[in-house]
Design a protein that fits this description.
heterodimer, A: 307 residues, mainly alpha, 3-stranded antiparallel sheet, 8 helices, 6% strand, extended, B: 282 residues, alpha/beta, 6 strands
Chain lengths: 307, 282
């Protein structure tokens, strides 16, 4: 057995041993195993003669002996699967391994399937068929559809474009898919061009036209606001100078460009700091989930009071 | 010592970072937060609206960013409910429907008087990236015919008379990337002047700064701003003080502090090694 495999085996044995001891301790203390989820039955009485609707809402484990509260196997499996997948993904920090590959494949597959199903029901069924065949949809898939709604024939256009788009799956005539693609690219480029021009160009110039000397209500100079505005205007100016390549970056232009690159570096540093903060927040959230919902080592939301 | 740090296996750094984040969580370390002017501007944008104002809550994020953005979304939802605003939930991300549902579950639990269709509505997910924004600013029902349960918007009291989102008093966007805050600025806030505030991931925040204050009224950037916002909300609405669910971001600032101190130490050590090596090579 090589060193890598020995470390893996040791980690697995240590982790498994900890899980067993932790589960045994929790069971002896509380009469239930960590990671268990309990649900409260909620009965909603319907308005007509229809049978009552029963829903289940997650409740505190300490209420498990109350009436209407039961153990939820599916949600418990969910907690354990989420925790084990989290650990499998974390294992990539040690190196690429089959557990990580499994978790990654599950994630990619589930994400793709989820997006496809949601897209089908919201766009194809609700938006396209709901507008083209409202009567049929009302009787079948969309009972809540407005009774006054009639067919909107302009939706035939996206239907045709959609059919042309998936034509590429056909054995021949794949070129047909290029036409709707060209339409989408052209339309998107046009829409974005206008918006970017307005928001990111004209408005940004407007945002930079600032008073360099800011007067407060009593006509005295507001020092900090003035410094802030001068910094913004100066920062934009020197950063633009850095990207102005029609003049050689020597002398005054070179000095200004150098200040510009320093400001850009400070901005990148701030971005990096923000990114670190974001990643640590995500790590903290996952660890909190593992310690709280799975291992029951902490109870920040007091979900297990009285256990 | 120099040789030890120079040849240190990066996996020891990972382990140390894991401990730096895990220990404060296990010990329940908390630190006080002082809301910044930016956080106050977002708070006031919602709080200064008259009671019953129309607020669009676009929750454009997925479980991958939930740890960072859920506290913001929950704080926005709670504040809107405390101010009796009318809430219109929607998302441009497929998994965003689950994120919206979490806010609705929270509303049902903490604000049982809030009634679906009267006080809030879930318009669900709209595919097409920025396309739906472009449509709903002029014709809401052209892009969104029904709510998440398939009920026509014409049959829901809250949306019956709503023509487009220009009638909103405020747009609140919680954004994890594309489509998100930038698209709401590009297609709703800037061209139609709809007041907009955003809560964003740390990665996005610096890129959205230039839009403040003219195109974005304010922004919560990353978990730090979320924690300050929760603190401000507790200060202004003391009934939330005992609500532990309303202090999620505040809890996450303990690990943040320790992890950041650890990272600064690592940067200092890394730079020291670099300069020592450079001096030795001369």
């Amino acid at each position: 057995m090589n060193r890598e495999n020995l470390i893996w085996l040791t980690l697995m044995l240590l982790g498994g041993g900890f899980l067993l001891i932790n589960a045994g301790t929790k069971y002896s203390e509380t009469g239930t195993v960590n990671g268990s989820v309990y649900v409260q039955e909620i009965v909603v009485e319907p308005e007509a003669d229809a049978p009552p609707i029963v829903t289940y809402e997650r409740t505190m484990a300490s209420l498990r002996n109350e009436p209407g509260v039961s153990f939820s196997l599916s949600r418990t499996i969910g907690v354990w699967a989420a925790a084990l997948c989290t650990l499998a993904v974390f294992s990539f920090l040690w190196g690429d391994n089959p557990l990580y590959k499994l978790a990654e494949s599950v994630f990619v597959g589930v994400s793709a399937a989820y997006a496809m199903v949601v897209g089908f029901w919201t766009e194809i069924v609700q938006n396209l068929l709901g507008n083209l065949l409202p009567a049929l949809m009302r009787q079948t898939l969309l009972p809540g559809l407005d009774t006054a709604k009639t067919t909107e024939w302009e939706y035939v256009v996206p239907l045709i474009l959609g059919v042309m788009m998936i034509w590429r799956l056909a054995p021949s005539g794949g070129w047909i898919a290029r036409w709707p693609l060209a339409f989408f690219i052209g339309a998107t480029a046009g829409i974005r061009l206008i918006s970017y021009l307005e928001s990111d160009f004209v408005q940004q110039i407007n945002n930079t036209i600032l008073p360099l000397v800011v007067l407060s209500a009593d006509r005295t100079i507001d020092i900090w606001s003035s410094v802030k505005n001068i910094t913004i205007v100066f920062g934009v100016f020197v950063s633009l100078v850095y990207f102005f390549f029609s003049v050689e970056h020597t002398g005054t232009v070179g000095a200004l460009a150098r200040v510009g690159i320093w400001l850009l570096m400070i901005t990148f540093g701030a971005s990096f700091g923000y990114t670190v903060m974001g990643r640590v927040a995500l790590l903290a959230a996952r660890l909190e989930f593992i310690f709280d919902e799975w291992l029951w080592l902490i109870d920040p939301l007091q979900r297990r009071l009285g256990l | 010592m120099f040789e030890f740090f120079r040849n240190l296996d990066r996996r020891w750094v990972f382990l140390a970072m894991l401990l730096a984040v895990a220990l404060p969580i296990l010990l329940g370390a908390r630190f006080p937060e002082d809301p910044s002017p930016m956080v106050r501007s977002v708070f006031e944008a919602i709080d200064n609206l008259p009671e019953g104002s129309r607020v669009l809550l676009a929750l454009d994020y997925d479980p991958a960013s939930e740890g960072e953005l859920h506290p913001m979304a929950a704080a926005f939802t709670r504040q809107c409910a405390l101010k009796n605003h009318k809430m219109y939930f929607m998302t441009l991300w497929p998994p965003g429907t689950v994120m919206v549902q979490k806010q609705i579950t929270m509303l049902e639990r903490e604000f049982p008087d809030y009634e679906y269709g009267i006080d809030y509505v879930n318009m669900g997910f709209r595919p097409g990236y920025e396309g739906p924004i472009k449509l709903i600013v002029t014709d809401l029902k052209k892009a969104i015919a029904a709510d998440v349960q398939g009920t026509s918007l014409d049959q829901i009291p809250l949306t019956r008379d709503l023509k487009n989102i220009q009638q909103m008093d405020l747009i609140i966007n919680v954004s994890a990337g594309y489509p998100g805050a930038k698209e709401w600025v590009l297609y709703a806030s800037t061209p139609y002047g709809i007041p907009t505030v955003a809560g964003t991931t740390g990665v996005q925040s610096p890129l959205l700064m230039p839009y403040i204050p003219n195109q974005l009224t304010g922004m919560l950037g990353a978990i730090k701003a979320a924690a300050e916002y929760e603190q401000l909300l507790i200060d202004e609405y003391p009934q939330l003080k005992e609500n532990r669910q309303a202090q999620e971001a505040l809890r996450r600032m303990g690990p943040q502090l320790v992890a950041h101190v650890f990272l600064i130490v690592l940067i200092l050590i890394g730079n020291a090694i670099y300069f020592i090596e450079r001096r030795r090579s001369r």
